[in-house]
Amino acid sequence: PEDTLFEDLLWSDPCLEEGRMESDRGCGLCFGPDVCLAFLEFTLYLILASTWQENDLDLIVRSHECVDEGYEWWFDNRLVTVFSASFYCGTVENKAAIIIFNQDMEPTFVQYEASPLDELPKQHMSRNSLEDGVVSKLFCRISEARLGLTDHWRGVAGDREQNRCISRQEWSDGLKAVL
Length: 179
Hints:
Layout: H1 5-11, E1 13-14, E2 20-22, E3 29-31, H2 33-40, E4 43-46, E5 51-54, E6 60-62, E7 71-74, E8 79-82, E9 96-101, E10 107-112, H3 129-144, H4 146-158, H5 168-178
Parallel strand pairs: 1-3, 6-8
Antiparallel strand pairs: 2-3, 4-5, 7-8, 9-10
Helix pairs in contact: 4-5
């Protein structure tokens, strides 16, 4: 079995139900307030130092999930999602935000919005808006299908002993098969 620690850390999302459960994203997990609190207060015995070490954290700041206002609080303000890409993929009308901590580690948020592409002055648009739109939609489709594509390409490259790279043709075949 493949080590999924990195994937779970990157793609896991908060949910209102207690415990852990399968995610709708197809990777990672959904975790409830009990899991969040257990992590914040997690205690670990350090064998080499013969001492107990606590996480002793007040807040988890996470990203990698589009939220409408650019940030979203969870679990009595013990976890916050911050998303810094407004108008995600050119199709989602979300705001973006950054988080700033003062000297006392109190967070404040700065929200912002990029201008939709159709509102940009003509001199900022590329020569071929139709082509840009197609490329943007293709990028979104590839992003949405990334897990299936990755699995497909791993299967193709996994049969090889040394070189795990795939050819352009294998890449193209994977796009056709999965998309």
